[in-house]
């Protein structure tokens, strides 16, 4: 998923280049509100009780989605940094656009898809909705129905929480996981577009795929699945079948056009297929029951994805020693794979050994120096090591990560701890306030920001960040006075 952040951040000369981090954070919140967002809240029992749907952060999966979507965005005439792809921690098959800057995709889309083309086809179709300006009608529907979608802010600590399925108390208590929740996406049928708009998005997707010299077979395979579902029941298995109705005749017309492409028989990119297999195995291992993983990736399967899946399950269910041994086996097979080092760091951090986690996080970052999630993971480990000599580095690393992944509550909270332990109390209050803003707790954020302002020199960057928060007014939502 792309993280929730200002998409103007990398444009030279844009206002965002000169805005304070807090102001960019607030502007991102306003953009989410335009998509029907009420508040940003962390995952918890209350949120889940209200039907909250968790978002998931995983650097590896997000990088793959960006590489899938990049050529499609190019073909559509959309700047790659304009649209973030946000991963939703749901195993059913669903994807949708909530505004012109975000495509939400359930991890079930990835785990169900056997080939990259199936996911790329979905992304191409959703991009068609963006270029077709169909979101104007969607927002009107939101206003008329007074349905509020609540999307959780990204915690942004790094990879998926190992405890998402296993119920690990160490993860829930330590907060090292990478899941967040909102207080409920809109009803499943909310994103049901008119049939004409779906057809427009279909044709746009075919155009994008042809421009990028990719086959539409994956997209057709996905849509055929949902056309078959409509034959049996109105209570479809997957919400994608509800929001993207696919009558059989429409599918037939679409296939006729798709087969005319000179790239209909184009093979899948073997490198993307290999990465897809790895991410798919990883997501299944983190979210499915261990018995399911054992069935899908038995010991007799010596492939790298199978070994990856088994290592994740070992981390979730066995001792630290066994988990590290399993991950070290992966590292021996691919020493330069940054995600294996990240996984080792996560295993050590979440099992209560943050000092030992520092080295693998450093290695992951050295292999992928621009990865903000690795920076936040490393900063987390440096703070958790409880060594005051490491705090200046933790502060520097966390600030660097938050420059890119500015809506990370865990990044802000760890920065607040690092600053507070160094006696920088007012700056720590600003970091706490920014983390609370990312979580959607506006009132608490304002209290911390107001307290910080009293102890900061007027006009300094930290004072201005606090002032942004104190003066912030949540945007009005569609259909609400």
Automatic annotation (TrEMBL):
Extent of Basic and acidic residues compositional bias: 1-11
Q: Where is this region: Disordered?
A: 1-21
Gene Ontology biological process: proteolysis involved in protein catabolic process
**From what organism does this protein derive?**
Stappia indica
The entry's protein name is Zn-dependent protease, contains TPR repeats
The UniProt keyword set, sorted, is: Hydrolase, Metal-binding, Metalloprotease, Protease, TPR repeat, Zinc
| One Pfam family from the record | Peptidase_M48
Q: Which Gene3D superfamilies match?
A: Metalloproteases ('zincins'), catalytic domain, Tetratricopeptide repeat domain
Q: Which GO terms describe its cellular component?
A: membrane
**Annotated GO MF terms:** metal ion binding; metalloendopeptidase activity
- Please state every residue range assigned to the domain named Peptidase M48: 65-256
**TPR repeat segments:** 338-371
Cofactor(s) this protein requires: Zn(2+)
Asked if the keyword Protease belongs to this entry, the reply reads yes
